[in-house]
Amino acid sequence: MTHAPSPPSLPGTASDAGASGVARPGRVEAEVGGRVWRLSRPADLESLWAAMAEGDLGDDERLPYWVELWPAAVLLARFVARNAQRVRGRFCLDAGCGLGLSALVAASVGGRVLGFDYEPEALVFARQGLELNRELLGPAAAPLFAVMDWRSPALARGSVDLLLGADILYERRFFEPVAALLDHALAPDGVAWIADPERSVSAPAWERLHALGWNVTTPHSGRVAQGGQDMNVHIRQISRPERGHPPHLNLQGA
Q: Residue 103, class by beta-carbon neighbours within 10 Å (0-12 exposed, 13-18 middle, 19+ buried)?
């Protein structure tokens, strides 16, 4: 019989420096590029965890982490906004998109964006966030959101120009499927930007990818306070060996 583990300690809902933090239980906000993005969610993580019953985790034991807007997602969205020239007109895949912040920001700067998540409920709220931010999207094409398992990606091989991921390696068992997704999805000259908070569980992943032949660099790092969390986050840039030197990235203000 499966029991949900105890939830992590999540400090309150105090406002963040440089971000709005949590507005109310059903909303969360973040400042990206001088604009406040508002996202919808059912509740905070602790509330959902307290309401979980035995058996709610399912075979994969996926916990509802998607209801929180984590610091890694905020830094990734800011990095995307600061490097709009690398996003505009490209097919972007937001892997494990959760509430959809990175997908929304990438679409707002001209990316052709598909956000996917394993949890159908997450996408219900990602689509609500789309409606909340119509004004910020302006004339840009809205991102599409789809349920997908990264172990069986419903994508043509080599079709993704830019793969985005925020805090997607929080369990060691995710390394192999993420590495396989990169290999399957990235175009020959494609790039992945994965926002990785400083955690021991994900630290070995980048050397492992390098050992598999990938180019791995860290073009930006920053500290982000969001929703009661305050974390150092690194943007990892991943590309195929054939790609050569990574492009110039605009890091000012990211």
A: buried
Q: So where are the chain's domains?
A: 21-243
Q: Tens of pLDDT along 194-218?
A: 999 999 999 999 999 999 999 999 9
Measured CA to CA, the distance from residue 80 to residue 152 in angstroms comes to 26
Token pair for 6: 């105890």
Separation CA 248–CA 8 (nearest Å) = 38
pLDDT at 52: 54
Whether the Cβ atoms of residue 39 and residue 102 lie closer than 8 Å to each other = no
Residue type, 19: A
- Which residues in the chain belong to E strands, given as ranges? 21-24, 27-32, 35-40, 91-95, 112-117, 144-147, 160-166, 186-197, 215-226, 229-239
Structure letter (DSSP) for residue 41 = -
Residue for token pair 């982490």:
65
User: Could you tell me the strand order of the sheet in which 91-95 lies?
Assistant: 144-147, 112-117, 91-95, 160-166, 186-197, 229-239, 215-226
DSSP 87: T
Confirm whether pTM is higher than 0.90: no
**Domain 21-243 fold:** Rossmann fold (3.40.50)
